[in-house]
Design a protein that fits this description.
Distance between the termini: 54 Å
Strand content: 35-45%
Oligomer: single chain
Number of domains: 3
Number of strands: 31
CATH superfamily of the largest domain: Jelly Rolls
Shape: elongated
Helix content: under 10%
CATH class of the largest domain: Mainly Beta
CATH topology of the largest domain: Jelly Rolls
Strand order of the largest sheet: 8-29-26-31-24-23-22
Length: 365
């Protein structure tokens, strides 16, 4: 085993790690870091003609030394940002220093509604993500950057190398299509097990950890905004030992929808069309204070359903089981794991639905 291959557990640091920044002329750079940024000197040598200095401050340990390396960049978080013209500084050695918000707010990208048809058979191979998860992109255009949809699978199953983390999001839900997955959530009691048809609303910043999955797990995830941060929380252990079902997380409540035993009722659109489809509704609207709505549609005596125009930011559909024909921007045959997005203001319909069709429908905004 080489040093490069050695496991981290075999390494025993004897002091704080340093980041080295190239510095050909130490005195002005040292004076700048200590005088302007408030770093303090830890070591400096040689005494008669200083060339190398180690500094500490703002949770960093820096080493200024001659060399071929780059001058680097440093991001310093702060609660109150200085004026825009003063947020980016340059040290005498060329190091770029940028003041950034400690906890910037979630910002939505401008919405650009477009029709999307995403067939599993035409999709590229899933990409590798966190903790052994494979990701298939369901909304490649991101609707302008506002939404992301992923078909996530874990082919091998077993215990997962996940850690306690949270997401800076406006909306995020996970729907289980195949297999099962065990997840622990902050202040929501013991870990839950999601099975086919179950889903969770993951409110903004709720800490969670994926613990274990069955072989062949498949879930569908919808999130907003499309580009959002995942942050580790190394200080928290899950479960927390508390169960707070009414806890508010950024204006939303945690929701665990269990499909088994949840009632099916006639779809409202079926009433005007003479019946024929039913829906399993959820408490998503209440949990998100009206931001989102989630339901599963299935035939109940008919093979088609016309749906009126919507006025939401997103209407996303995913075929969980069976087959149907989508009438929107043409006529499109749909099979299992195919997905689509219907822009606002457009009529759409389903036809030639197989008796085992199950369609996940998510509306947001």
């Amino acid at each position: 085993m080489t040093a490069v291959d050695a496991p981290a557990a075999a390494i025993h640091p004897s002091g704080p790690a340093e980041v080295e920044l190239a510095c050909a002329d130490l005195p002005p750079t040292l004076a700048w870091f200590t005088g302007v940024l408030g770093f303090r000197v830890e070591t400096i040598f040689p005494a008669e003609d200083p060339q190398v200095a180690s500094l500490s401050g703002h949770g960093l340990r820096l080493r200024l030394a001659p060399g071929e390396g780059g001058a680097g960049a440093i991001r310093l978080p702060c609660e109150t940002l200085p004026p825009a013209a003063e947020r980016v500084l340059s040290a005498p050695n060329g190091t770029r220093v940028e003041w950034v918000e400690t906890d910037p707010p979630v910002e939505d990208a401008p919405l650009a509604p477009r029709f999307v048809l995403n067939r599993q058979a035409d999709s590229p191979a899933p990409g590798a993500g966190r903790a052994g998860m494979l990701y298939r992109d369901l909304i490649p255009d991101r609707q302008g950057g506002r939404f992301i949809g992923s078909h996530i699978s874990i082919p091998q199953g077993g215990l997962l190398a996940d850690w306690v983390h949270f997401h800076k999001v406006r909306f995020q839900m996970i729907f289980c299509r195949r297999g099962w997955v065990r997840v622990a959530y902050e202040d929501q009691g013991e870990p839950i097990v999601m099975r086919p048809g179950d889903f969770v609303l993951q409110p903004p910043r709720i800490r969670h950890r994926v613990l274990e999955a069955s072989v062949g797990l498949e879930v569908v995830e919808i999130g907003c905004p499309a580009l959002h941060e995942t942050l580790a929380d190394h200080a928290m252990t899950l479960p927390t030992g508390r169960t707070l079902p009414d806890r508010d997380y950024g204006g939303q409540r945690f929701l665990f929808h269990v499909a088994a035993g949840a009632p099916w009722t006639p779809a409202p659109e079926s009433a005007s069309a003479g019946g024929g489809f039913e829906a399993q509704v959820s408490a998503m609207t209440a949990a998100t204070r009206g931001l989102a709505d989630v339901r599963v549609l299935r035939p109940a005596g008919a093979d088609g359903l016309s749906l009126p125009p919507h006025d939401r930011e997103l209407l996303f559909g995913f075929v969980l089981e069976g087959a149907a024909t989508l009438h929107s921007h043409g006529v499109h045959a749909l099979g299992g794991a195919d997905a689509f997005v219907i822009p606002p203001g457009e009529v759409w319909s389903l036809g030639a639905a197989s008796s085992d069709l199950a369609l996940l429908e998510v509306r947001v905004g």
